[in-house]
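just leaving the lab so this will be short. what follows is a protein written twice so to speak, once as letters and once as structure tokens for the fold. can you read through it and tell me how you think this chain folds. anything you notice is useful, everything is just below:
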Amino acid sequence: MNTAHTLPNAFEWLLGLYGDNFERLQRLVDARRMVPGRYLNERDGQPALVLDLLEQQPYTSLLRLSLRFSQSTPEEDPESYWRVYHDARQAEVTHCRFDSHRVRLFAPNTPARLIAQYRRRMNSFANKWLEHLLQGGYDPQAWILQGPAPQWDRRLVVAPGAEDEAEERAGSRRSPRRSASSA
């Protein structure tokens, strides 16, 4: 009996992609050796690569990576947020913004299938984008600390449906409960 799988399942494939993302990101920047702050990597004829190292833990880094275009709105695009698991050698894009379109996080009741599809698409894009940056000649030794990382406004990323759910919860708290005698 042949027990070998010819194709990985979706979860195995996604973990493989996270591993590939880690390898490519590592060739571009070794975040583990840096302190939190804003860094620039500039190359002649290319937009500046911007790295905000937002959090640094012993085994995990949270960073924001984007390109800075001088004559564009928004100035920095795409804006990608990464969670890098150094010990597991995995790098996951947690969310992204492209061309003023912010991809929203999911509400708690979002089906797992949709979340998995979203993660696959987003991380596939990020994987190709990292390869593009590496081919663009950005030097992993050329990062220059500019100062503190700007504060990330987490309110900009709101789960779809979360506004409605929050209003429903607030409305149910405000409305008086009907007693059995008033019914």
Summary: Helices lie at 10-28, 112-135, 162-174. The radius of gyration is 21 Å.
